[in-house]
Amino acid sequence: MDKSIVNEVVSALEAVKSYGQPGFWILLSILIVLVLVIAAVMYQRIVIKRSQTASKATQENFETIAADLRKRALEVKKQDEGLKRELEVKERKQQQVLKRSQRALKGSVSHTMLRQISKG
User: Fold this and answer.
1) What's the rounded Cα separation, in Å, for the pair 87 and 91?
2) How many domains is the chain partitioned into structurally?
3) Which of 31, 63, 67, 115 is the most buried (most CB within 10 A)?
4) pLDDT for 65-78, tens place per residue?
5) DSSP H or E run through 49
6) Phi/psi at 9 (nearest 5 deg)?
């Protein structure tokens, strides 16, 4: 605190004291209340500032977690798409094998029937 302010307060207290005891106590009470109000306001500002800092840190933490989850979801989606493609390829190959087997079976049946007809 500035020395001139302290000197002003002291001189004001001495002036009030010279007017009498009741005025001094009233002024002293007002000063005490004023100091308490200022202290309470400062305390509130400190508490609010700490709360905002904690809140900001929490929000940043949530944003980091959300970004990580989005990244993981994208990776899972890519894996999903890869597995779908692999499954489609396997299904196509199985269908091709099945078609070949059916053709071979038809050919075999046709050949067998022709042989029976020619014998018969």
Assistant:
1) 6
2) 1
3) 31
4) 999 999 999 999 99
5) helix 21-119
6) -65, -45
